[in-house]
Design a protein that fits this description.
The chain is about 30% helix and about 10% strand. The strands form 3 sheets. Strands 5-8-7-9-6-10 form a 6-stranded mixed sheet, sandwiched between helices. Strands 1-2 form a two-stranded antiparallel ribbon. Strand 3 and strand 4 form a beta hairpin. Helix 2 packs antiparallel against helix 3.
């Protein structure tokens, strides 16, 4: 150990490690481990001789005794302790803060402050049921929710994920709803629909107003008194049709002619039959037609699409007209003892054409007497 007497200022100028609480004329040098061990051995003998020297004063002998007692405390890192109250240590460990108590203060920073010049995005993460610090308390100024927030789950993402999770049940529920609606609609339809009559193995094909895209009537028609007692057979005096597409075109053309050229509220006939073997709904069973002046209120008129002065209608067109008549009798729209007339028997007209007129004269319920 090196102990040198010098003024305090000189010790600082030479770069020695000093302690403010030590004697003003004592300096201490930090040594390596090998040098410290050698110095400690020599110094121990020197201090032992000094304590026995009667020429030294009492103060010097006390100092030598104290220094000798501290020589053995030279550590492996070359640190010498002169007094219990004076320790000079060399350590590579950074200082640590065990606990900090702050009260009545503001603008407190632990660590470095970072100043950013530019746009900043702050994301907040709140943990649910976070344990309270033993030395602190919850922030009383916070008024938000304590639930956990995930920055990646936006409201749109949350809704989309929820839909995906329950999509099977959603699709199943929608399918059941549509199925129930379909069943109800079909039940109502079949409960209220009037089944067309059958003849042999064939069934009447009835094309409704909605199917041939009829115009709505200008005014609500007058109700017929049912059952009616007359069936009048007429022809439209137009070109014939052999397919449903061409027959639909003819029916729509006839309705337009009746409403716009003649000023009637709707197509004049109750039913029409086409060369395709289908019947087309006109005013139907329940409304008074506009076909035979003076006989409309107690008659059903069935018009053959085409002109049949010299040409007879095809067999399927004739069968369609007969099925309409049978349908009316079966459903109570026609009297069982109805009378069948040609259009020309009731008003001066060529209708239903000479060729067709000769055919209907052979049908059941044809009458020569129009009264």
């Amino acid at each position: 150990m090196l102990v040198t007497e010098m003024p305090p200022n000189s010790a600082r100028e030479q770069g020695h490690l000093t302690a403010d609480d030590a004697k003003p004329n004592i300096t201490i040098e930090s040594l390596s481990e090998s040098d410290a061990s050698s110095v400690a051995s020599d110094s121990s003998d020197e201090y032992s001789e000094a304590t026995d020297n009667p020429k030294l004063g009492g103060r010097a002998r006390s100092y030598a005794l104290g220094a000798m007692s501290q020589v053995d405390r030279i550590g492996a890192n070359g640190v010498l302790v002169i007094d219990d109250e004076l320790q000079v240590q060399k350590s590579d460990r950074p200082p640590a803060i065990e606990s900090v108590a702050v009260s009545n203060s503001s603008d407190i920073t632990f660590g470095n402050k970072t100043f950013i010049n530019g746009p900043v995005t702050i994301k907040q993460f709140i943990k649910e049921s976070q344990p309270q610090s033993p030395q602190g308390q919850d922030n009383p100024a916070f008024e938000g929710s304590s639930r956990s927030l995930d920055a990646s789950n936006t409201p749109d993402d949350f809704t989309y994920k929820k839909i995906l999770r329950y999509r099977t049940w959603i699709l199943l529920g929608a399918t059941l709803i549509f199925a129930l609606v379909g069943i109800v609609c079909l039940t109502v339809f079949f409960a209220t629909a009037e089944d067309p009559p059958k003849q042999g193995n064939e069934t009447l094909r009835l094309v409704s107003r909605s199917e041939w895209i009829a115009q709505p009537p200008n005014e609500e028609g007058v109700d017929l008194t049912l059952p009616t007692n007359r069936v009048i057979i007429a022809h439209t005096a137009t070109e014939d049709c052999t397919s449903q597409a061409s027959c639909v075109y003819r029916v729509r053309f006839i309705q337009t002619f009746h409403m716009e050229s003649r000023g009637w509220d709707d197509i004049g006939y109750n039913f029409l039959v086409g060369g395709d073997g289908s019947a087309y709904e006109g005013r139907g069973w329940d409304k008074v037609g506009a076909h035979t002046k003076g006989f409309n209120v107690d008659s059903i008129c069935i018009a053959f699409i085409g002109t049949f002065v010299k040409v007879t209608p095809p067999e399927r067109q004739l069968v369609a007209a007969q099925k309409v008549i049978e349908w009316g009798v079966r459903t109570g729209k026609l009297s069982k003892d109805y009378k069948l007339f040609g259009h020309r028997q009731l008003i001066p007209t060529e209708s239903p054409g000479a060729a067709l007129y000769q055919i209907i004269k052979t049908w059941p319920h044809w009458s020569e007497d129009p009264s």
